[in-house]
Every structure is written in structure tokens, then in C-alpha cells.
Design brief:
- With about 290 residues, the chain is an alpha/beta fold.
- It has 3 domains: about 50 residues, no CATH class; about 90 residues, Oxidized Rhodanese, domain 1 (3-Layer(aba) Sandwich), CATH 3.40.250.10; about 90 residues, Oxidized Rhodanese, domain 1 (3-Layer(aba) Sandwich), CATH 3.40.250.10.
- The chain has 12 helices and 11 strands.
- The strands form 3 sheets. The chain has a 5-stranded parallel β-sheet.
């Protein structure tokens, strides 16, 4: 397959380690044909068709919801925006008038600030490295979006969203002004966070279901007792597997992905709590994770 290409030819990857576009992507910034022929497991498996197919298909990460939309847009072309959208600023009264079940209210503040008080039915989508993946997993491309964001990062948030096809951005609210939003009729709501020490007492109840939102390959390596597994990137497509009559204790590896999942599920009417520190914190306290 690569015999006609010199070993010294450089290879510059389009995606690196940590990308959701594939499994076990290398962390080196560049490579060579010779290195890949010697060490790339996919190339080493290519001598046998079935072995190659099995290697490629086994253990792939669950794709975010927006991947299908990107494939569609790459094939037929995305809508022409004519420039970067400039959504209008809205005030507290306009924010109160929104129905977060019909409009995706994307709160870009850090998780701790969000969980201590946020607009009802809003989504926790901190502006960090995984913002695109999180937003693209939890917001449909046909939903109107209102951002809660610091003005200094508005342009960053807008650009990140339109790059994955989420361009129905109808307005933004200054995250520094949330104190103006709260009234007796529209209080800020919270999400509970449970420590690894507190979790067992909660888990003995028949009303509680542990929901692990890591990838299936992570889950297979060890998980909390009686947990069910739905990756946070696929929650929207697999909601029928998540019981709505149970109090969900949501966990991931560190507590970050589960925080995104908690806000999404709370928006849909689920009763949720986040496991602080995730499975790493659980394993530090409890040796008995199912393995």
C-alpha cells in the first residue's frame, strides 16, 4: 500500500490526540511514512482485510450529535452566512421571557458558578477546549440559541458555534449581570454535587440510578456499581435508555462531562446530581469499582 512512497516523506495530521474524530490518535505533531509503516497499528493490520476492519471499528469513540450534520454540510454545502453573526444583546427582562425548553440558553460560565445558580433550563457549556463538542452534542442545529457570556469572549463563542453549524444565535446576555435576572418569580436554580464519600448513602435507594456518561471503552475498564452507560455525546440520541422516574447520579472520569450531562438532563426535567471529581474521586475512596 505504501511501498511506492519514500520513508522520509513527512506526514502532517489533520487531527491529534484528544480529537473526537477517531480512536487512539497519536500525540506527535508530525510523523514520516517510515515511522507509520513500522508502528501504526492500522497499517500493520492492513495485511488482512478482516483484521483491518475489526481494528478500525472496535473501540471507536461515540460521535457527537453534530458529526452527522457536518457530514451533510460537507457534502451539500453549509448555509451562506455572509459574515460572522452579530447577535443583539438582550436585557434581564428579555432573558426572563425566554422558555429554555424551546430556546437553547447556553451558559458559558465555569461549572461551579453555573451549578450554584443558573437560569432555569439553561445548559452548562463553559468556554473551554471541549466547547464545540459539548455544544454540538447537546444543541440541535435547528434550535435558536441565546448565549450567557462575558462580553470579552462573545466573538469566540459565536465563531466556535458557527464552525459546527450552530448558527441560529439570536442574542446574548452579559454573564456578569445575572444578579439582575433573579426575581421571586424567576429564581436561579442549582444542581447538587455529591462527593465520593456521600455517594454510597445515596446509591442504596431504589430511586437512584447511577449514569456513567463516559465512552463505552472507558466504562468497560471499570465503573461504579449498577451503573448504566450512555456517552454524553450521544445522550440526545439515546434518551430512551435513561429512566426519567429515577434520581440520576451522573459521573464521568473527572466530573466535567457529567456536569454538561446534568445540565442537559435537568433541562429535560430529570432529577440529577453530579459526582464531584468523577470516577477518579470514587476510586480514591472506594476500591470496589466493578472491574
Amino acid at each position: 500500500m505504501l511501498d511506492g512512497i519514500a520513508d522520509y516523506i513527512q506526514v502532517w495530521p489533520s487531527h491529534g490526540a484528544g480529537s473526537a474524530y477517531g480512536k487512539a490518535l497519536g500525540a506527535v505533531p508530525s510523523s514520516t511514512i517510515g515511522y507509520e509503516k513500522r508502528f501504526n497499528p492500522a497499517i500493520l493490520a492492513a495485511s488482512d482485510e478482516q483484521g483491518f476492519v475489526d481494528f478500525i471499528l472496535t473501540g471507536q469513540p461515540e460521535p457527537p450529535l453534530y458529526f452527522a450534520n457536518m457530514k451533510r454540510d460537507n457534502k451539500v454545502g453549509p448555509p451562506v452566512l455572509g459574515g460572522v453573526p452579530q447577535p443583539p444583546r438582550i436585557d434581564a427582562a428579555q432573558l426572563r421571557a425566554l422558555d429554555g425548553r424551546r430556546v437553547a440558553i447556553a451558559d458559558t460560565r465555569p461549572w461551579e458558578a453555573f451549578r450554584m445558580g443558573h437560569v432555569r433550563n439553561s445548559l452548562s457549556l463553559p468556554l473551554r477546549q471541549t466547547f464545540n463538542t459539548d455544544a454540538g452534542s447537546l444543541i440541535r442545529d435547528d434550535e435558536d440559541i441565546v448565549l450567557i457570556v462575558d462580553p470579552s469572549r462573545l466573538d469566540e463563542a459565536v465563531r466556535d458555534l458557527i464552525r459546527i453549524g450552530l448558527d441560529r444565535i439570536r442574542g446574548w446576555f452579559d454573564a456578569n449581570d445575572l444578579d439582575q435576572y433573579e426575581t421571586s418569580d424567576t429564581p436561579l436554580v442549582t444542581i447538587a454535587e455529591i462527593t465520593a464519600e456521600e455517594a454510597p448513602a445515596m446509591m442504596v435507594s431504589d430511586r437512584v440510578q447511577v449514569l456513567d456518561v463516559r465512552r463505552a471503552t472507558e466504562f468497560a475498564g471499570g465503573h461504579m456499581p449498577n451503573a448504566i452507560n450512555v456517552a454524553h455525546t450521544r445522550l440526545a440520541a439515546r434518551l430512551d435508555e435513561v429512566p426519567k422516574d429515577r434520581h440520576l447520579l451522573v459521573n464521568c472520569r473527572t466530573g466535567a462531562r457529567s456536569a454538561r450531562a446534568c445540565s442537559y438532563l435537568q433541562r429535560l426535567g430529570y432529577e440529577v446530581a453530579n459526582l464531584k471529581g468523577g470516577i477518579l474521586a470514587w476510586d480514591l475512596v472506594h476500591v470496589g469499582a466493578d472491574r
